Structure formats: C-alpha cells, structure tokens
C-alpha cells in the first residue's frame, strides 16, 4: 500500500508554457506540485516565438522579464500575397520575439520559485484512475496524484486518454536559418498569404537567426511542402544552412470536446486550444495552463466553464476569420493594403488592446467579414 506522502496534490506533464503556467498556478493555490518533462531543460522547441499582448500580460503577471527574453522587437510588417504585391507598414515596436527554449526555461524557473518540484528525463506513457488517485505510468516508475494537468502536446497520451476531439488539423513546416549579413530583417516580420487555401508563410526575426515557415491544412500536405520550399527559395535563403528544419501538426479542439476525464485535465496543445486562423498557441497555452492548474488544485469540474469563459469567444472569432481568409485571401490582402484603419487595428489586435471577438461585435467589421464569406 503506497504511503499517502507519495501522492502529489497535482502532477503536471510537460514543461512548455501550458505546463509551467499550470504548475505555478497549482503551487500558488497551495498544492504540492510535481512537474514532469521528458527532455532535459532547456531544450529546442519549434515555434514562431511571437508574444502577442495576452502572452506579454501573462508573462508579466508571472514575473517573467519579457524584455530580457526578447531577441527582437518588431515594429514593421511586410505583407505579400503569394510572394507578390508586397507592402510594408510600421508602428512603434509592439511584438517581442523569443526563442522557445529560453521562454520555457524562464517559465519553469518561476514555477520552481513558487514551490514546484521538477523532474526531467521522465516520459509518461499511461494514465489510470482509482479511488480518487491518478496513477501515471512513467519511464522511471509509477507516480501518483490527486489531479493531473497534461500539457504534453497534441500527440501526447493524455489527449487520447481524455478523448479530445479536433476538427481542424494543420501541418506547419519551419526552419531556423542564419540571418543574412546586411539584410533588413531587424524589427521586421514578413507575412505571406499562401497559394493553398487557408495557408500563410512567415519570417520572424530573432537577432542572428530567422524563423521561416508556412502552415496550412494537413490534407494538403504535398502542396504545403511545395509552398514551403518555394517560399524559402523566394527569400534567397538556403535550407541547407538551417540549424533546425522540420514539421509538426497543430490541432484545434472541436466545440464541446472534453477538457478532462476524471481528475486528468488537458491544457494548451494537448487540449487543442489555439487560435484557428493564425494558429497562435503561446497565449492560449499560458492562459489555459493557469486555469488548469488552479482547477487541479481545487475543483476539476470548474475547468471547462473557465476555459469557455476566457477563450471560447476568441476561438469562435478565429474560426470565422479563417473561413473568410480561406475563401478570399486576395480580398484580405487588399483590405489590409487599401483601408487605412486596418493597420492600426492589426497593431491593436496583436498588442492585445482588442480581440477579434470584440471587433466582430462592431457592425462594420461584422459586415466586412460576412461579405468575404466568414
């Protein structure tokens, strides 16, 4: 019979933004918390690395120094449509760019400062529940908890255990490339509306490196791969110089999909929580992680309603935006270029001073989105 002292109040699986945020929240709620991570920290993680307003706010609230983490601070954006009809807009710096390895390391640090215990090199392979205790089958032996927050990604075991259902699956291809000498990437992002319906490409500057990638529907995989190669080549960049080059799936949770099973909750990518159009996930990970950690330390059943209250409207608005963009990407490009109010609105959206959900409540914006099929 296991000693009651062997049972953690909360175990968190995965030390990305969702997991670290959950661990910190659980500790702050008074729970004895263990954070498990399969890799050694810090570790590379494929990610665009842009911190939109809600991410910046969550990090500031956690005591993370965003300025110290930033590798670049974007104030200029170049928009293109299939590599053509480019234009650039500028504002004061509003989008910090970070490396995920450094971001995740900083978040784990504040979780530890809040009282969390961390174990790395531990893989979780199974979940089971009995008599109010969750047993995690791990590579180093069983671990017991009264509640678990799983933030181990969309391909992790927890999503299958909980029964997460996703109705949008995309493939992202991305490389970390050296910034060419004498280039004009400092403080400037490129967004390209791609040739595959619903796809887009990006260049995100991070000092000595550029994160270059594309994303689109998974069932258009070959077309997305072709777009990726041609996009990188059109920029005069060479994939053979990449320090990292690969792909990953992103998945968006279907409405009504479960967020917990018994005492096991899912957060971040494991829950399919991200913005459907841009596929932005850091802010959703930080916020859902905080909500999951708080619920795990108290009432697990409160978690789905909390997620719906804080994130539901943003997901719904993102679905509408993706539908409009998929049907008429050229119109989206033209609106961004020729309607003067759109650039300041874009900056406000990225900075977190407004949301797509709030904007869709405005009659003119709602009409515009509806007119292009959203």
Structure in a nutshell:
By secondary structure, the protein is α/β, with parallel strands linked by helices. The chain contains 12 helices and 15 strands.
Please specify the SSE layout and strand pairing.
Elements: E1 7-13, H1 17-28, E2 33-37, H2 53-62, H3 66-69, E3 72-81, E4 84-97, H4 100-113, E5 117-120, E6 124-130, E7 133-138, E8 143-150, H5 157-162, E9 166-178, E10 188-193, E11 200-206, E12 209-217, H6 221-234, E13 244-253, E14 260-261, E15 264-266, H7 282-296, H8 303-327, H9 329-338, H10 342-351, H11 356-359, H12 363-371
Parallel strand pairs: 1-2, 1-8, 2-5, 3-10, 8-15
Antiparallel strand pairs: 3-4, 6-7, 7-8, 9-12, 9-13, 10-11, 11-12, 14-15
Describe this structure in words.
This protein has 374 residues and is an alpha/beta fold. The protein folds into three domains: 4-49 and 100-165 and 252-315, FAD/NAD(P)-binding domain (3-Layer(bba) Sandwich), CATH 3.50.50; 72-93 and 167-249, 2-Layer Sandwich (D-Amino Acid Oxidase, Chain A, domain 2); 318-371, no CATH class. The chain is 36% helix and 30% strand. It is built from twelve helices and 15 strands. The chain has helices spanning 17-28, 53-62, 66-69, 100-113, 157-162, 221-234, 282-296, 303-327, 329-338, 342-351, 356-359, 363-371, and strands at 7-13, 33-37, 72-81, 84-97, 117-120, 124-130, 133-138, 143-150, 166-178, 188-193, 200-206, 209-217, 244-253, 260-261, 264-266. Strands 1, 2, 5, 6, 7, 8, 14 and 15 form an eight-stranded mixed β-sheet that branches. A seven-stranded mixed β-sheet has the order 4-3-10-11-12-9-13, sandwiched between helices. Strand 10 (188-193) and strand 11 (200-206) form a beta hairpin. The longest helix is centred in the C-terminal third of the chain and has 25 residues, at 303-327. It starts with 6 loop residues before the first strand and ends with a helix. The relative contact order is 0.17. The mean pLDDT is 94.
């Amino acid at each position: 019979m296991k000693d009651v002292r062997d049972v953690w109040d909360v175990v968190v699986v995965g030390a990305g933004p969702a997991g670290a945020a959950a661990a910190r929240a659980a500790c702050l709620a008074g729970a004895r918390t263990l954070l498990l991570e399969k890799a050694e920290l810090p570790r590379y993680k494929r990610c665009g690395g842009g911190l939109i307003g809600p991410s910046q706010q969550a990090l500031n609230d956690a005591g993370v120094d965003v300025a110290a983490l930033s590798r670049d601070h974007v104030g200029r954006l170049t928009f293109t449509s299939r590599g053509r009809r480019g234009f650039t807009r500028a504002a004061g710096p509003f989008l910090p760019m970070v490396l995920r390895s450094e971001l995740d390391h900083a978040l784990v640090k504040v979780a530890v400062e809040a009282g969390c215990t961390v174990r790395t090199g531990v893989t979780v392979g199974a979940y089971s529940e009995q008599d109010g205790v969750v047993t995690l089958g791990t590579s180093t032996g069983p671990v017991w908890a009264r509640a678990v927050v799983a933030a181990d990604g969309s391909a992790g075991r927890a999503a299958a255990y909980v029964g997460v259902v996703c109705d949008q699956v995309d493939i992202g291809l991305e490389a970390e490339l050296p910034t060419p000498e004498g280039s004009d990437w400092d403080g400037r992002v490129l967004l390209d509306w791609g040739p595959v319906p619903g796809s887009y490409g990006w260049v995100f500057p991070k000092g000595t490196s550029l994160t270059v990638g594309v994303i689109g529907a998974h069932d258009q995989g070959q077309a997305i791969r072709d777009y990726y190669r041609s996009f990188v080549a059109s920029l005069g960049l060479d994939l053979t110089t990449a320090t990292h080059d690969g792909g990953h799936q992103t998945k968006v949770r279907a409405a009504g999909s479960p967020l917990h099973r018994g005492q096991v909750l899912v957060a971040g990518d494991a829950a399919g929580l991200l913005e459907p159009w841009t596929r932005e996930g850091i802010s959703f990970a930080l916020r859902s992680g905080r909500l999951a950690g708080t619920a795990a330390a108290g009432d697990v059943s409160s978690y789905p309603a909390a997620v719906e209250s804080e994130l539901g409207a943003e997901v719904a608005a993102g679905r509408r935006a993706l539908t409009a963009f998929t049907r008429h990407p050229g119109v989206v490009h033209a609106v961004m270029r020729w309607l003067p109010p759109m650039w300041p609105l874009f900056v406000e959206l990225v900075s977190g001073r407004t949301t797509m959900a709030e904007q869709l409540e405005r009659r003119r914006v709602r009409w515009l989105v509806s007119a292009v099929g959203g």
